[in-house]
Write a structure and sequence with these properties.
Blueprint: H1 2-21, E1 25-32, E2 38-42, E3 46-52, E4 56-65, H2 70-78, E5 85-89, E6 92-96, E7 105-106, E8 109-110, E9 113-122, E10 126-129, E11 134-136
Length: 141
């Protein structure tokens, strides 16, 4: 009976891990911040900012299926439509999302998903969040 219980627990844990791996698709991008004093973020969506001690900005984009097939989300993530784009000059970097990724169709069906971002920014760099009119304070954690 004990072996049966352990087998069930192992099976449940494995199934749970597999299900969790198909919850979302993550895209991670990093950009050098050499010479950058201000990062302007023009990304519409759910964003969490975090500070770190690395000289680069890292953006983790999570595509979470709502009314979408997971395989469709995976394929769409590979197209690059959800990559964050950058432009920089004179001590500033602009991070923005791709305006062409608004409507998603896969095999004739409209796919919907939530998009969430975690943006790690270097300590000492000022961050301006355009859509939320926020200034991510230089010393905040």
């Amino acid at each position: 009976m004990r072996n049966f219980t352990l087998t069930l627990i192992l099976l449940f844990t494995t199934c749970f891990a597999i299900a969790q791996s198909e919850v979302d698709k993550r895209i991670v991008q990093s950009f050098s911040t050499d010479g950058i004093e201000t990062i302007i973020v023009k990304i519409d969506g759910d964003i969490e900012f975090k500070r770190w001690k690395h000289p680069k900005v890292s953006v983790q984009t999570s595509l979470i299926p709502v009314d979408a097939k997971y395989r469709a989300v995976e394929i769409l993530a590979e197209t690059g439509d959800y990559d964050i784009l950058t432009a920089d000059g004179s001590g500033k970097m602009l991070l923005y999302d791709n305006p062409n990724a608004e409507y998603i169709y896969f095999k004739g069906e409209r796919q919907t998903m939530d998009i969430k971002y975690i943006i790690h920014v270097p300590e000492g760099v000022r961050v301006i969040d355009v859509f939320r009119n926020n200034l991510f304070a230089v010393n905040s954690q």
